[in-house]
């Protein structure tokens, strides 16, 4: 393949479209980031650089609402990501290291179910479910729903990683009289660390970012950051919303970047 | 992400065969109870009677589906006519999702092809660049898009400033704004499967075509495109399906005139004004459409795989 002349492979204009694509993807985020530092109270006019709206997020009239929402968002995301990563790791071990079995396809279908069902349908179904068993909507219902739909996001990087690790490492350990449990915890899990970390981070971001399902199952009075932001935006985009959005988007980008570099590192060699 | 879900994984060993059921139990329990059972419950609810303050009365009824498809007048005593209101909303959602898919394909295909023909070392970085925005909160991305496109927004300011236009172009609250929002929401789903397909494509085929004096664009259309077709179809499905049921882009960028399924469903569960069985029925209809599309796709993929090897 390397011998194929580049002239034959490449097409004129494709580079330009790629750059246009990146421009469309990044321009809105960059613009909002810039305007979040605007000193003006209007979102239209530029009046110079200021951290005013960042201060407003922490001390302004809406700060209490944002603090509670941020607390809810982060505690739910940490717990949901931990639980779904644990569940996904166990499932991946069965799927990748469990031989062939009848229910393998069904299991895989079940794990990817939250990816196939449109999110709004999952949201409606979850709301109806909690209603029908008489469960009061609130913090706990959000947490449970998040654990469920984060599982496939944690599962995919973890199972991909496990498929990339030859089982000769565990076989060698067991030849040296390690039990299966020891081979699992002392050999496979350390090798799996990059996959598990990137699965955890993706689940964490997916939970932190979710709006639709949370909006349905949150109940009255309980807000996460996305639902609080949505409530504010409905009355118009305000500068403090741009500041909080910039913080949240920077956080996501940092997390994904860490996940990218962690999953690239290969400790099996 | 969902692209990876299509392949179940090939290399399996049976080291933990005995523990298999215990290892799978937590995922079965959580997904069974909190995803699968709720969907079944939703099906049941769609056949119940509505309670006027939200919720349901446990009395079997076809009223929800009847209301969706038929118009029986204000008091329900006129001869049934086809009710076009909801069919129109579904049709608009399909149309908008289709337009967004086409837009994603037109931009996403050249992008995926370009990335796949970069030197192998730098490809992951390009893919990373394309996927970063996907991981930023969808709500924030949609709000940012609205901020940029507003009548008094930076885009119109810029165009007026350069003298290209005299008065702002109205983009927000149009169909095009919704399509742009959907494109922005799901573009990586188009790029990733096409990228994976082009990466596997054997470029000596293109070289052979060039040796036989095929013009480059003919080679692209007649040789490259048929070879990577499964990737292109996968990309289209992965953009189309979530677009159809999306809520944020039509709600924030589309305004009241460009109502889509997502908003119709959401409205049924809001406050006291909603109609739960009707919302459940509309969700069931959406889910059925999506599953049919995925099923046709899965059958085609397995046919292509069996025929290919």
Architecture overview:
The complex is a heterodimer of chains A (269) and B (309). With 269 residues, chain A is mainly alpha-helical. Helix content of chain A is 75%, strand content 0%. Chain A has helices spanning 6-9, 14-35, 52-59, 63-97, 104-116, 119-132, 139-164, 168-175, 180-209, 212-217, 225-233, 239-264. In chain A, helix 4 (63-97) crosses helix 11 (225-233) and helix 7 (139-164) packs across helix 9. The mean pLDDT of chain A is 87. Helix content of chain B is 69%, strand content 4%. With 309 residues, chain B is mainly alpha-helical. Chain B has a domain at 83-268: Orthogonal Bundle (MetI-like fold). The chains are: A mainly alpha (269), B mainly alpha (309).
Q: What does the overall shape of chain A look like? A: globular
* Count of beta strands of chain B: 4
Secondary structure category of chain A: mainly alpha
For the largest beta-sheet of chain A, the strand count, sense and barrel status come to: none
Largest sheet of chain B: 2 strands, antiparallel
Keywords:
A: mainly alpha, B: 309 residues, mainly alpha, MetI-like fold, 14 helices, 69% helix
Describe this structure in a few short sentences.
The complex is a heterodimer of chains A (269) and B (309). Chain A is an all-alpha fold.
Write the layout of secondary structure elements.
The complex is a heterodimer of chains A (269) and B (309).
Chain A: H1 6-9, H2 14-35, H3 52-59, H4 63-97, H5 104-116, H6 119-132, H7 139-164, H8 168-175, H9 180-209, H10 212-217, H11 225-233, H12 239-264
Chain B: H1 2-5, H2 20-45, E1 48-50, E2 56-60, H3 63-69, E3 70-71, E4 81-82, H4 84-116, H5 123-135, H6 138-149, H7 154-161, H8 175-200, H9 204-211, H10 216-227, H11 229-244, H12 248-254, H13 261-268, H14 276-308
Antiparallel strand pairs in B: 1-2, 3-4
Helix pairs in contact in B: 3-14, 4-8, 4-11, 5-8, 6-8, 6-12, 8-11, 8-12, 9-10, 11-14, 13-14
């Amino acid at each position: 393949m390397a011998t194929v002349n580049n002239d034959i492979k490449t097409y004129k204009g494709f580079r330009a479209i790629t750059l246009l694509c990146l421009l469309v993807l990044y321009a809105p985020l960059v613009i909002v980031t810039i305007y979040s530092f605007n000193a003006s109270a209007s979102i239209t006019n530029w009046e110079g650089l200021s951290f005013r709206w960042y201060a407003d997020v922490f001390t302004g009239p809406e700060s209490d609402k944002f603090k509670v929402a941020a607390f809810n968002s982060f505690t739910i995301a940490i717990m949901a990501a931990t639980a779904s990563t644990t569940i996904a790791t166990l499932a991946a071990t069965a799927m990748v290291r469990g031989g062939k079995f009848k229910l393998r396809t069904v299991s895989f279908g079940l794990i990817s179910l939250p990816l196939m069902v449109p999110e709004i349908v999952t949201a409606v179904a979850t709301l109806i479910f909690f209603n029908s068993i008489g469960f009061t909507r609130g913090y706990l219902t959000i947490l449970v729903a998040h654990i469920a739909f984060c599982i496939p996001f944690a599962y995919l990087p973890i199972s991909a990683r496990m498929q990339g690790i030859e089982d000769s490492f565990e076989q060698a350990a067991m030849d040296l009289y390690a039990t299966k449990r020891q081979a699992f915890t002392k050999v496979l899990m350390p090798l799996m660390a990059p996959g598990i970390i990137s699965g955890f981070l993706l689940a964490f971001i997916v939970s932190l970012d979710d709006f639709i399902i949370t909006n349905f199952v949150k109940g009255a009075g309980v807000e996460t950051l996305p639902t609080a932001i949505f409530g504010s935006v409905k009355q118009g985009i305000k500068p403090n919303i741009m500041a909080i959005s910039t913080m949240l988007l920077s956080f996501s980008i940092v997390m994904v970047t860490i996940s990218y570099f962690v999953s690239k590192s290969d400790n099996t060699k | 992400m969902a692209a990876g879900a299509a392949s179940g994984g090939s290399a399996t060993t049976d080291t933990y065969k005995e523990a298999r059921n215990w290892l799978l139990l937590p995922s079965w329990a959580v997904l069974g109870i909190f995803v699968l059972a709720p969907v079944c419950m939703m099906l049941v609810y769609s056949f119940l009677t509505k309670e006027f303050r939200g919720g349901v009365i446990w009395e079997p009824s076809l009223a929800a589906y009847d209301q969706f498809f038929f118009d029986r007048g204000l008091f329900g005593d006129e001869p049934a006519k086809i009710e076009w209101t909801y069919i129109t909303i579904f049709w608009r959602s399909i149309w908008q999702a289709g337009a967004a898919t086409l837009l994603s394909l037109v931009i996403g295909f050249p992008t995926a092809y370009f990335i796949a023909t970069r030197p192998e070392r730098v490809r992951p970085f390009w893919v990373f660049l394309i996927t970063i925005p996907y991981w930023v909160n969808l709500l924030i991305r949609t709000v940012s898009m609205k901020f940029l496109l507003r009548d008094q927004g930076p885009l119109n300011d810029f165009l007026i400033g350069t003298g290209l236009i005299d008065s702002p172009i109205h983009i927000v609250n149009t169909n095009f704004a919704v399509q742009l929002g959907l494109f922005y929401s799901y573009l990586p789903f188009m790029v990733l499967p096409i990228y994976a397909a082009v990466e596997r494509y054997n470029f000596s085929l293109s070289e052979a075509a060039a040796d036989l004096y095929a013009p480059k664009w003919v080679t692209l259309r007649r040789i490259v495109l048929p070879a990577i077709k499964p990737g292109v179809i996968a990309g289209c499905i992965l953009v189309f399906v979530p677009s159809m049921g999306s809520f944020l882009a039509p709600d924030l960028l589309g305004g009241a005139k460009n109502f889509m399924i997502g908003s119709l469903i959401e409205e049924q569960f809001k406050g006291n004004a909603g109609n739960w069985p009707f919302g459940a029925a509309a969700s069931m209809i959406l889910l059925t459409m999506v599953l049919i599309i995925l099923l046709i796709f899965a059958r085609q993929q397995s046919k292509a795989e069996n025929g290919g090897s």
